[in-house]
From TrEMBL:
Name recorded for this polypeptide: Protein-L-isoaspartate O-methyltransferase
Its EC number(s): 2.1.1.77
GO biological process: methylation; protein repair
Catalysed transformations (reactions): [protein]-L-isoaspartate + S-adenosyl-L-methionine = [protein]-L-isoaspartate alpha-methyl ester + S-adenosyl-L-homocysteine
Keywords: Methyltransferase, S-adenosyl-L-methionine, Transferase
Any one of the GO CC terms: cytoplasm
Record family assignment: Belongs to the methyltransferase superfamily. L-isoaspartyl/D-aspartyl protein methyltransferase family.
Species this chain originates from: Capsella rubella
Keyword Methyltransferase belongs to the record: yes
Family annotation (InterPro entries): PCMT, SAM-dependent_MTases_sf
Keyword Glycoprotein: no
Length: 228
């Protein structure tokens, strides 16, 4: 945690703290996180701005604000207006909404979540957020499906984010990444690294590890519901 649980109770103050700690460094990321109120996307609004992950049911968590901010920063150059982004394991819809705000109405943001109940609740969350107009016009959408297979309909993507840890990088996601695009994904089982995958113009990829992390596993719907 980058701040104490009781010290932050407003979305704007949360973003300012992320800036003060050097996690948010771009105006575009700060603006998106200010516009999309995290409190709309969590079950307990009183804890919405605490720098900690939170359970949202179905053995799924919403990541801590600093992790969301880190992923937004890593993808920031691939989230320009008009670009396409895929959010695998979109959960509550929070980061999908942030992506949508950054790529704008001329871009496209797609969330994929294999728990239909979470898809339904995330749509309601987005409808209550500043990203609602993008949802209504269709540049933002959330689908029920196996995110390990990506979402081929709107590929290739400039940016792909994965919100759960895969034992290895799914080939389908690399295939759906545009040359010049970037994929951010936690990889590993007990020990996990946040990996940054850049696709080169010739289709080859470069991979680097950003930091050690701890995410829930990217697995099947059945295994997730069992808590495996």
């Amino acid at each position: 945690q980058f701040w104490s649980p009781s010290s932050i109770n407003k979305n704007k103050a949360m973003v300012e703290n992320l800036q003060n700690h050097g996690i948010v460094t771009s105006d575009e990321v700060a603006k998106a996180m200010e516009v999309v109120d995290r409190g709309v996307f969590v079950p307990d609004r009183s804890s919405a701005y605490v720098d900690s992950p939170m359970s949202v049911g179905y053995n799924v968590t919403i990541s801590a604000p600093h992790m969301h901010a880190m992923c937004l920063q890593l993808l920031e150059k691939h989230l320009k207006p008009g670009m396409r982004v895929l959010d695998v394991g979109s959960g509550t819809g929070y980061l999908t909404a942030c992506f949508a705000v950054m790529v704008g109405s001329e871009g496209r943001a797609i969330g994929v979540e294999h728990i239909p109940e979470l898809v339904a609740s995330s749509v309601k969350n987005i409808e209550a957020s500043a990203a609602s107009p993008l949802l209504k016009e269709g540049s933002l959408a959330v689908h029920a499906g196996d995110g390990r297979q990506g979402w081929a309909e709107f590929a290739p993507y400039d940016a792909i984010h994965v919100g759960a840890a895969a034992p290895e990088i799914p080939e389908a996601l690399i295939d759906q990444l545009k040359p010049g695009g970037r994929l951010v994904i936690p990889v590993g089982n007990i020990f996990q690294d946040l990996q940054v995958v850049d696709k080169n113009s010739d289709g080859s990829v470069s991979i680097k590890s950003e930091t050690s992390v701890r995410y829930v596993p990217l697995t099947s719907r059945e295994a997730q519901l069992r808590g495996d």
